[in-house]
Amino acid sequence: xxxxxxxxxxxxxxxxxxxxxxxxxxxxxxxxxxxxxxxxxxxxxxxxxxxxxxxxxxxxxxxxxxxxxxxxxxxxxxxxxxxxxxxxxxxxxxxxxxxxxxxxxxxxxxxxxxxxxxxxxxxxxxxxxxxxxxxxxxxxxxxxxxxxxxxxxxxxxxxxxxxxxxxxxxxxxxxxxxxxxxxxxxx
Length: 187
Hints:
By secondary structure, the chain is mostly beta strands.
């Protein structure tokens, strides 16, 4: 019972902050961008899990909507990921750090839990706007291994996003809830 309580508390602390209402799939701050661009995820949607008895690889390449990522494991409990995404004249590049707490270790289970932090640079160009910004996110999630070298993953967390339009000097920032998903290939 105590083990499950620690797992649930860890997931809540890694994925939810009080006062954030609603969840929005892959969204940027609502600003003067094309509506189709507002659906674009702010970041790093594909993640990978630490090497385990089911997966002893140290590197992973991920595909996500709409981008790619590369992950390097420094240990069984820590990994770093570089990611890039582009859609509707919006580009996002950043770094994610992943932590795999001992409390979440499930032996040879195909499920791997994690939490992490992310920092991104954002650039955009619309018909009437052009600018850049940043995003910072905390997240928690789970990855399921379909085979030894292939997995699906999802995470959720609050992201603080700030962007500024260079032509008009208009800026916007705020807290958004972000859901990420992807597929990972280990090598």
